[in-house]
From TrEMBL:
GO terms for cellular component: plasma membrane. It catalyses: heme b + (2E,6E)-farnesyl diphosphate + H2O = Fe(II)-heme o + diphosphate. One of its GO terms (biological process) is heme O biosynthetic process. Converts heme B (protoheme IX) to heme O by substitution of the vinyl group on carbon 2 of heme B porphyrin ring with a hydroxyethyl farnesyl side group. It is found in: Cell membrane. This is Protoheme IX farnesyltransferase. InterPro entries: Protohaem_IX_farnesylTrfase, UbiA_prenyltransferase, UbiA_prenylTrfase_CS, UbiA_sf. It comes from Celeribacter indicus. Keywords: Cell membrane, Heme biosynthesis, Membrane, Transferase, Transmembrane, Transmembrane helix. GO terms for molecular function: protoheme IX farnesyltransferase activity. It is a multi-pass membrane protein. The lineage of its organism: Bacteria, Pseudomonadati, Pseudomonadota, Alphaproteobacteria, Rhodobacterales. The keyword Acetylation does not apply. It holds the Pfam family UbiA.
Length: 312
């Protein structure tokens, strides 16, 4: 964290919504959903109450990571349009308060997950929090234009944690679910950066669009989208993918690849003239990409249970 001073607004007392915002609920929603998917598709089973509690602990751990991230990044959040009204830069919550909340919730989530399910899941959750708060936020976010690639690992761990909460181990299936999110993250965020570039430039965050330009970013989006499609295809070698996954894979990866090619071919003057319409559309498509893939895996688990279809 830099020396930027956060001035508390005495006229605006922090409310429940401010503390909730510290936990990054929109990011947490993806964490909860993919963790739940990993738990559902894992072989064997878990008591519904324990499953609910496991997902709750993973959500709290994800929220704790968000609070630690906001504590450290308060200085750059102040100068970025989309983040300047967050509770810390807006002066509603003190940085030290966010730090304390993040640490307490981290410890609680890890210990309770271990006691309720398996210590393998707890260890993965602890590593995820450490990776996001320390490796990504403190170390690499401001040091390399590959920050999004590396930081994507933190958001990719939840399905592995959910899987480990049931099985107590890590398998090829859970690793490939991790890789699906890991490879999805760069094109997702880089497409956002194409039309939000001024924010990152102003905050001196070395996003790829800032350090290498938009032309290079478009090339990277295409390359990572191709790798993402291959990663999604690799799930067919595991016992968790069936016909529902195949249908989603064909449609979504076809659309995603077509979108990435379109972005690659776009001229910057053309993109700016139409308000980055194609880039915004690609970003919106990316929001449903992982959702539909994991929904399909859960649908296949249900179909398998009724004797419909089967692993490829």
């Amino acid at each position: 964290m830099t020396d930027a001073t956060i001035i508390l607004d005495d006229d605006r007392e922090a409310g429940f919504g401010d503390y909730l915002a510290l936990l990054k609920p929109r990011v947490m929603s993806l964490v909860v959903f993919t963790a739940f998917a990993g738990l559902v598709v894992a072989p064997g089973g878990i008591h519904p109450f324990l499953g609910f509690f496991a997902v709750l602990c993973i959500a709290i751990g994800g929220g704790a990571s968000g609070a630690l991230n906001m504590w450290y990044d308060a200085d750059i959040d102040r100068v970025m349009k989309r983040t300047k009204d967050r509770p810390i830069p807006a002066g509603r919550i003190a940085p030290e308060e966010a730090l304390g909340l993040g640490l307490v919730l981290s410890g609680f989530a890890v210990v309770m997950l271990g006691l309720a399910t398996t210590w393998a899941a707890a260890a993965l959750l602890a590593f995820t929090i450490f990776f996001y708060a320390v490796v990504y936020t403190i170390w690499l976010k401001r040091a390399t234009p590959q920050n999004i690639v590396i930081g994507g690992a933190a958001g990719a761990f939840p399905p592995m944690i959910g899987w480990a909460a049931v099985t107590g181990d890590v398998s090829l299936s859970s690793v490939l679910m991790f890789l699906l999110i890991f490879m999805w993250t760069p094109p997702h965020f880089w497409s956002l950066a194409l039309f939000m570039n001024s924010d990152y430039d102003k905050a001196k965050v070395p996003m790829l669009t800032v350090t290498h330009g938009k032309r290079a970013t478009r090339t990277h989006i295409l390359v990572y989208t191709v790798i993402l499609a291959l990663t999604a295809a690799a799930l067919f070698v595991t016992p968790i993918a069936g016909w529902a996954y195949l249908a989603v894979f064909l449609v979504m990866n076809g659309l995603f690849l077509a979108g990435a090619v379109k972005l690659y071919r776009r001229d910057e003057a053309e993109a700016e003239a139409d308000g980055y319409r194609a880039e915004r559309a690609f970003f919106k498509l990316s929001l449903v990409y992982t959702f539909l893939h994991f929904m399909a895996l859960m649908a296949d688990k249900a179909l398998f249970a009724f004797g419909i279809g089967g692993p490829f």
